[in-house]
Amino acid sequence: MSISRKKKALVQKALDHEYYRCMDAYISFNYYLSNPSGKDIKRNRILCYNSYSDFLAHLYEFYIKMIERSSIFQETGIYENYESFKCKGSLKKTDIIIKEEVEKLLRNRKNRIENGYKDNLGFDIVFYDQKVPKEIGQHLSYMRHRRNHVDSKRISDDKMSLATFYRKYHNFMVILFEELRWIWQVDEESFYWVDIEEFAKEIKN
């Protein structure tokens, strides 16, 4: 196997693992959300906060790697011709691509409803006509940064708290995640990641 093909295979495995981490965080968040601990409400709230922060960070990392490895992203000239890039201001290209990905998924899901398919998330067609905020990619990147770095803004941020992000973007995040399920399933039994296996053997010693 060539170095290029071997690297691509390793990136694929890393993407599998990142998707699994994203899925695990999403499942954990929904578990803590629907199963509050009566005697330990504070701990439940912390676990909800942490698991949702993890979900956003892993979702962002997955999509960023998918964007970076795509040939169209590497051909910068194509993106420079996009209307949205001519007045991008402080937005990074990846921020805009994430926004346009959400817009594409909204169109696709609306088309399914128009073709007689029931929406698996329970949204009506009006939901898919809404305008996607231009800062969605930038704010998702910001949430990932807050989660990964020790920053006072994690505790107190008037501009974009986790609660504000959830209120403004949660349904869009669910769509980004759910659409991955159509094409990206990780089978736990067949999943093999060398570092995980080595770690499992090490901690048994």
What report would you give on this structure?
It is a single chain. This protein is 68% helix and 0% strand. The chain is an all-alpha fold. The chain has one domain. Helix 2 packs across helix 7 (136-148). The longest helix has 32 residues, at 3-34. The radius of gyration is 19 Å and the shape is globular.
Secondary-structure content class: mainly alpha
Query: How would you characterize the largest beta sheet?
Result: none
Alpha plus pi helix count: 9
Mean residue pLDDT: 81
Number of strands: 0
**Could you tell me the strand content as a percent range?**
under 5%
Shape: globular
Describe the SSE topology.
Elements: H1 3-34, H2 41-69, H3 71-74, H4 76-80, H5 83-86, H6 93-114, H7 136-148, H8 162-181, H9 194-204
Helix pairs in contact: 1-2, 2-7, 2-8, 6-7, 6-8
What's the short story on this structure?
The chain has 205 residues and is an all-alpha fold. Helices cover 68% and strands 0% of the residues.
What descriptors fit this protein?
205 residues; mainly alpha; 9 helices
